[in-house]
Write a structure and sequence with these properties.
Layout lengths: L3 E6 L6 H17 L7 E6 L5 H10 L7 E4 L16 H6 L4 E4 L2 H6 L4 H13 L3 E6 L3 H5 L3 H13 L4 H4 L2 E5 L14 H15 L5 E5 L7 H5 L6 E4 L6 H12 L1
Parallel strand pairs: 1-2, 1-8, 2-3, 3-4, 4-5, 5-6, 6-7, 7-8
The protein binds 1,3-dihydroxyacetonephosphate.
1,3-dihydroxyacetonephosphate binds next to strand 8.
Length: about 250
C-alpha cells in the first residue's frame, strides 16, 4: 500500500494553549496506536504563531515524530522589506517541513496567482521543504463543465518547468471551492472521478501524492479515499480537534 497523506490546516484558529493541547493529544494517540501511521502520513498545518509551540510539543511527546508539520503560507523571497510576510527559511526555522501554497482562500482574499504560487513552490523546494499546492475551481466553472481545464491550468501554471526530482517534493490537493467550509458540500465520488483522473494522468507517480479536500468528515472519508487517484485527505473543520484527525487516520489506515 502506498502512503496515504491525511492532515489538517487549522486556518486562522487556535491559541497557543489550544495548539499545545492538540499536539500533545495527537502525539499521545499516535504513540498508543502505531498502526495508524504505518501506511498513513499525518500532517498538521497550524497558523504561523503556533509553529514553534507545535514543533516543541511534538518533539517532547512520544508519538510526535510521526507528524509532518507545515506552514499555511510563506513568501517567495528569503528575506527583505516585505512587511507582514514570513519567508520559507523562517517557517523552516520554526519547524515546518512543508509549506501549503495557493489555498483558494488565499487566491480569493490575498490575490494569489499562478505566478505567485509558482514562485512559492520554488522557494519551498529551494529550501528543502515539501510544497503542498492547492487547486480547485469555483461552482460556476464546475457547472459549465470546466473543472478539469481550470485545475490543470492552476497546477501547470505553478509547476511547469520543474524536473521530476522537484515534482517528487510536491503534493497536490484538489479542493473545489464549492466543497470547502461551512457553506460547502462535499464532492461526491462521481464528481471527483474526472478531476482525479486528469491530475493523475499528468502528475501521477511524479508528485508525492494527490489529496482531496473540502468538507471531509468521518462519514464520507472512506468513500472519498476509495475514488481512484485519491492518495489522501486534506481536512479543515473535522480535524480541528485532535480526536477528529485520529478518527480520520484510523479510516485511512483501515
Ligand atoms: O480548506 C480545507 C482544507 O484546506 C477544507 O476545509 P473544510 O474541511 O473545513 O471544508
Amino acid at each position: 500500500m502506498t502512503t496515504r497523506w491525511v492532515g489538517t490546516s487549522w486556518k486562522m484558529t487556535k491559541t497557543l494553549a489550544e495548539a499545545r493541547d492538540y499536539a500533545a493529544g495527537l502525539a499521545e494517540a499516535l504513540a498508543e496506536r502505531p498502526e495508524l501511521t504505518r501506511d498513513v502520513q499525518p500532517f498538521v498545518i497550524p497558523p504561523h504563531t503556533a509553529l514553534t509551540t507545535v514543533r516543541d510539543t511534538l518533539a517532547q511527546t512520544p508519538g510526535g515524530s510521526a507528524v509532518v508539520l507545515g506552514a499555511q503560507n510563506a513568501h517567495w523571497e528569503d528575506a527583505g522589506a516585505w512587511t507582514g510576510e514570513i519567508s520559507v527559511p523562517q517557517v523552516a526555522d520554526a519547524g515546518a517541513r512543508l509549506v501549503e501554497i495557493g489555498h483558494s482562500e488565499r487566491r480569493e482574499h490575498f490575490a494569489e496567482t499562478v505566478q505567485s504560487t509558482g514562485l512559492k513552490v520554488r522557494a519551498a523546494l529551494r529550501h528543502g521543504l515539501l510544497a503542498l499546492l492547492c487547486v480547485g475551481e469555483p461552482e460556476e466553472v464546475r457547472a459549465a463543465g470546466g473543472s478539469t481545464t481550470f485545475i490543470l491550468d492552476q497546477a501547470r501554471g505553478a509547476l511547469d518547468g520543474l524536473d521530476d526530482a522537484a515534482l517528487g517534493e510536491v503534493l497536490l490537493a484538489y479542493e473545489p471551492i464549492w466543497a470547502i467550509g461551512e457553506h460547502g458540500r462535499p464532492a461526491s465520488p462521481e464528481e471527483l472521478a474526472g478531476p482525479f483522473a486528469a491530475l493523475q494522468e499528468e502528475y501521477g507517480g511524479r508528485v508525492r501524492a494527490v489529496l482531496y479536500g473540502g468538507s471531509v468528515n468521518t462519514d464520507n472519508a472512506a468513500e472519498l479515499l476509495a475514488v481512484p487517484g485519491v492518495d489522501g485527505l486534506f481536512v479543515g473543520r473535522a480535524a480541528w480537534e485532535f480526536q477528529g484527525l485520529v478518527r480520520l487516520l484510523q479510516i485511512a489506515a483501515a
